[in-house]
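Hi C.,

You asked whether I'd gotten around to modeling the 295-residue construct. I have! Everything is below, sequence then structure, no commentary in between.
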Amino acid sequence: MSCATQPTPTRWPLRALMTLTGVRGDEALNCDGHGTVPVSDMEISARLKQATNRLKAQGIDSENGRVDYRALAGSSAFSEYKALTYALRDFDPAALTSDAERMAFWINLYNALMIHAVIAYGVRRSVNDDWGFFDRTAYIVGGYRFSANDIEHGILRANAGHPALPGPWFRADDARQAFCMRSIDVRLHFALVCAAKSCPPIAFYEAERLETQLEVATRNFMSGGGVEIDRAQRIVGLSRIFSWYAADFGARLFGYWQQERLLEFAARYAGEDADFLRTPGLRVRFLRYDWTLNV
């Protein structure tokens, strides 16, 4: 599944990783067909939102975020969604003019891309069974290839780079930098769904309601197991997300330094536990992340 794209000057650590995992730089999930109806740049964001809502209605449990990939694979909603992804090849992301439009579009695209990839690649147990999954999983958008990692670490995390790799995600001469967010909104970590049980429940976002939706997503994640408090032992368990992306929250060394920054963020969503999370001397441990498929 490949098609011609604009050349992307990939940084050497990622080039090496892609070579080791057998990921091709022209591989994408929207290169194996053609859309039947032309879609303008002005329409595509709204059309994608409608298509993802149909996916949600036909195969996603709104209560717990579980996805019925088998049901979706044979659904009319998935066929319609796939046909629409072909139009992304000619879509100019610069048509998204506001920060809210950009953030909602790329979060929705990431979440739908992950569903598409699980079905297309026949994932049965975990996306982590394929070391190159997040680089292999990609769409062509506006002539450029965007993998799941490109969307997360390049676009949405303002080119901050992967926590395990040094330096920014996109090189200075990479034209995709023009589409990056200007700063990191850490709530994105509770909106992106990586097809694992420990991920947040899947949802799709609207630019007009983005602020409220991100607040709800973050609060639901934190109250749904993202933070565990043991008052007797003075231990706070935090989702492993807070370790991987500690720098986004203002901490350092994968969350083992400046942990008070993590606790302060958690306190904002802790209700009656907020004062406890702000007391000095608490110990933080990071919870096990369940990478089993979110079915």
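If it helps when you're writing up: The chain has a mean pLDDT of 93.

Thanks,
B.
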